[in-house]
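#structure-requests
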Amino acid sequence: MDELESYKQSQKEKNNYWWTIEFSSPASEKSMSYNEEILSTVAALSDAIGAYIFTEKDYYGRIKLFLRADYDGARGIDDVLFQVEDILRDPDFRSVSLTRCYKTSNQPWEKQHYDAFPPLNVGKSLVVMAPWHEKEKILPGRTPIYIYPASAFGTGYHESTQIALTLLEEVVKGGDTILDIGTGTGILFIAALKLGADKAIARDIDPATLDEARRNMNLNGINPKVCELSEGDLLRGFTGQVNILTANILLNPNVSMLPDVRRALKPKGYAIFSGMTGVESSMFLSVMESSKLAVDREMKIGDWWGCRAVKSWG
């Protein structure tokens, strides 16, 4: 792939160091999964080139959740810190603290990044792969989905994305149109197209992520003519109908979108929701039922939960 070779060359030309910033967040049992998602979002919004979440005792012996995020060494550290501090001013990230910042040098960045994203089998028929694994053997019956582990949300390695992919592969078929809300890397609509869907409509409130989606489309050989990418806030302004709607986003935007989902689905369409924890499922299902949608299938991986819904005719 020409773009892959260009990407590898660009990495060789960069300095062999990067900036590392560590963040912390509470790690209570009730908030653990939610704060993991918050930290992942901070890494994505701040254009981290790699991120690792772990638990550890702080100076006072309290267990806390930490994010270690790496940033391109070619960027000035002042630029990185300005972007990070601007993000942390948002009330949604009030639980996140910046704990330390340092330069990581003289280490094989490419190998570390390479090893951090091994091929991952998802569901019965998919395998998510970073582009540098393209020459590795793929098991018969598996469809590869190539995704750059970059700044946009949705590398395929998070449980919520695996749930959405599994619920999607079970129902997508030839001739389908998919509407992907909060598309991020584009992994869900790309998977749908490679599994036989005819058309995709992808929206994200952050226009910067659309470039990531386009790059991943190119990696997977997706014809731009079959996908309509646009900036959009959930279903606001959308007037069409689709066979499948996917939304791998947080609880609050999922809930706020529910009243509009039914009108966006064709009579035998499916809506796939993910990005929520098992604790949040009862609240979501209650609102979903009042929006005249019925559960077709639920799925849980670890603390994360998602479901596939259909129109309720009751």
